[in-house]
Amino acid sequence: MDDDRAYAIRAFYRLYQATCAVALDPQHAGARQAQRTAAYRAHTALREAGLLELPKERLFELVRANHPAFGRS
Fold first, then answer.
1. Whose CA is closest to 50, among 9, 6, 5?
2. Of the candidates 6, 12, 8, which has an alpha carbon nearest to the alpha carbon of residue 45?
3. How buried is residue 33: exposed, middle or buried, by Cβ count under 10 Å (0-12/13-18/19+)?
4. Domain encompassing residue 44
5. What whole-number distance in Å separates Cα of residue 39 and Cα of residue 6?
6. Is the pTM higher than 0.70?
């Protein structure tokens, strides 16, 4: 996997983590801003790596391959 794709996968995983944090504690100071920042970075990285239009199942496979905890409660 090239560096752009690896960075995009990490950015998407950080968005996942930020979203989980907001879901667990929506009143936490800064959580929503962290989620917005993570969303912007993930979107940008996925677009630049050519992964933005992937079917979500394929994207999730790529994320799970690098971050096995992805999607597990």
1. 5
2. 8
3. exposed
4. 3-66
5. 16
6. yes
Token pair for residue 38? 């993570």
Of 69, 55, 73, 61, give the one whose Cα is nearest residue 14. 69
Cα–Cα distance, 38 to 60 (Å, whole number): 17
Is there a domain that residue 73 lies in?
Answer: no
- pLDDT (tens digit per residue) in 18-63: 999 999 998 988 988 999 999 999 999 999 999 999 999 999 999 9
The count of structural domains within the chain is 1
Within a domain: 9: yes
